[in-house]
Amino acid sequence: MQPEETLHTALRRIDGKGYGAYKDIRGIYRFSEYTFCIDHVQGDPFAAPSRVRVMLPRQTAGFPAEFFSNKSRAIALADVLSRRFGDACMRRTGNGKGSGKSGIIAMDTPGQEVLERTSVIVRDGEVEARFVVGLPAFGRRIAGREAETMFFHDIPAIVRASLLFSSLDPEEIRLHCEVCEDADCLRRQLKELGLVAFVADGAILPRQSGIDDLPMEGADVVPFSSPPSMRLTLHVPNRGMVSGMGIRAGITLIVGGGYHGKSTLLKAVERGVYNHVPGDGREYVVADPDAVKIRSEDGRRVEGVDISPFIGTLPQGRTTTAFRTDDASGSTSQAANIIEAMESGARVLLIDEDTSATNFMIRDQRMQELVVTEKEPITPFIDKVQQLFRDCGISTILVIGGSGDYFDVADAVICMDEYLPEDRTTEARFIAARYPGERRPEGGSCFGRPARRVPGRDSISPRKGRREVKIVVRERSHIGFGMDDIDLRAAEQLVSVSQTSAVGAALWYAVKYMDGRRTVGEVAHRVMEDIAAAGLDILSPGAPGNQALFRQHELAMAMNRLRSLKVRTAPIDW
C-alpha cells in the first residue's frame, strides 16, 4: 500500500502525456480516512470508465452494530449507502469536463427493490464502495490537474457525504433496515403457514406506468384491503402485527373485469420475491422465494426438454420426451418454460392469461368435438394444474378472465372489483355446480416425471474471435455471451441490469459443475451455494461493482436460452 502522496506525484508526472500513461497509477493508496484502490485503468477516454474502490474501517464509517446485526440489515444498510453515494455523485459539479467520459464519477445504484449488490458491501461495520471514474483527458492527453481534483477533492467529498454515519439520517437508515428485516421475516413464515404469498393491508400496488416502477399517487389510488375470509395477522420484529391477505398453497385464480387490478396484483406477488424500499407501497408484499413467472415465448430455442406432460406425439411421429426446436410456438414454449421451472426448483407458478398461449391454457368442449383428442397433441394446462400440485407440490396463481372452466380446479378464487379483492371461492363453486362443464379431461391422471437434462460443458463458451471471454450486458433483457445473444425478455423477475450482469458471469462460472451427471437445475443450485458461501465476487475477477444477486431460476433461464446449449436426457432417478 502506497501513501496518497505517491498518487499526487504520479499524476503530476504524467500530466500532458499520452492517455496510456494512466496505467502507472493503478494500485492501492492509503488516504487519511480510507484505503483507495484503482483496480482497472481504462485504455482510452472513450472506453468504459476505470474501476475504483474505497474501503472505510468500522471506526471511520461509524455505523452502530444494530444496522448490520444480521444479513437483512447489512444488505439494507449497503442499499442505503449505494443510493446516497449515487445522490452525492449527481450533486457534484464539474462532472464530465474533457474528452469522452472524462470526469465521470458514478455508482451502480438500485431501483425499488433492495438487492444484495457489489456496489457497496458492509462486512462487520467495514464499508467497501465500488464505483467508476472517467479519467480526465483533453483529446487523448492526460489532464493531470483535473485528475488530482477528482481524486483529492471530489471523491473525498462524496465519501464523506454518503458513507459516514455522521453525515446521514439515522432514522432513514433505521427504517430501511427494519422494513427489510420485517419483509424477510414475513417471507420465512409463509411455508410454515401453508402460504405462497402475503399482501399486506394498506399496500399500494399500482405503479406510475409500465416503464416507471414508482408507486402511483393521487386521490384515485386504492390501498389494498384483504377480504375478511382471507385475512391473517402476522408478527414481525419491528412493525409488530401486520394484517393482510394470505394466498394459500394450491390453485388460486385471480378474476375480475378488465382494468380492475388482476394483473397488478399478480405483478406485485411476482416482485414479492424481493424486498422493497420504504415508501414503495409493496414493502410487506412477499412471495415464496421460488415463485416463478411463466409465459409463452414464441421463437425461443428449446433444447432437449421433456414436454410430454403437456405436448404428446407430434405429426410425423415426432416425440416430445426430448423436444428440440430453434423456433418454439406459443404452446410448446410455455410447456418448456414450466418444465424448466420445475427443474430449477420452482414451488409456485405465476401465470397471466394475457401473456399465455390460448390453446395451451384451455380447450373447450366444442373444440374437443371438432378436433378429436387423437388429433390434438396439446394437453391444456387446466388438465394438469391440479396434478402439478398433487404430484409435484407446485402451486399456481393464475390471472384468468376468459374461461370459467377453471372454477372446477381452483382451491381459491379472488375477484378484483375496482382494485379491491373479494373472496368469491364459494360463489365460483356454486356456479361450477350449477353449470357443469362438458369438456372432457385430457392427458391422463398423473403428471409424470419429466426426464433429467444434463448440460454439455463444451456447448457453453463465451469465446468470441481471439477473446477467450466476451460477456457483454448492456440491458436487463439481453446477455452477449461469446457469439450468442441470450434473450431474457421472458425472465420477468429480473429487475436490474446488475442482476443480468451477474447471471452472465455465473453462466460461465457454472461450467465447473457440468460433469456429465448434474442436471441444469443441480448446476444452478451449486452456483447459488457458492455465492451464499463466498459472495458474488466469486463469479468475476477484479471486484466489479455492477452486479446484484439473482436466483437460480434466472440462471437456469439464461442457460436454457443459450442457443449453443446441448443437453443429454438422463434416466429418471429422482
Can you describe what's shown?
With 574 residues, the chain is an alpha+beta fold. It has four domains: 167 residues, no CATH class; 94 residues, no CATH class; 142 residues, no CATH class; 119 residues, no CATH class. Helices cover 29% and strands 23% of the residues. It has 14 helices and 30 strands. Strands 1, 2, 3, 4, 5, 7 and 8 form a seven-stranded mixed β-sheet that branches. It has a six-stranded mixed β-sheet with strand order 19-22-23-16-24-25, sandwiched between helices. Helix 3 crosses helix 5. The longest helix is centred in the N-terminal third of the chain and has 23 residues. The model has no long low-confidence stretch (mean pLDDT 94).
Question: Which shape, going by the Cα principal axes?
Answer: globular
Rg (C-alpha, Å): 26 Å
Round the mean pLDDT to the nearest integer and report it. 94
Number of domains: 4
Query: Helix/strand/pairing class, anyone?
Result: alpha+beta
Low-confidence runs of at least 5 consecutive residues: none
Portion of residues within helices = 25-40%
Number of strands: 30
Through-space gap between termini: 53 Å
Query: Given the structure, what is the number of helices?
Result: 14
How would you sum up the major sheet? 7 strands, mixed
Strand content: 15-25%
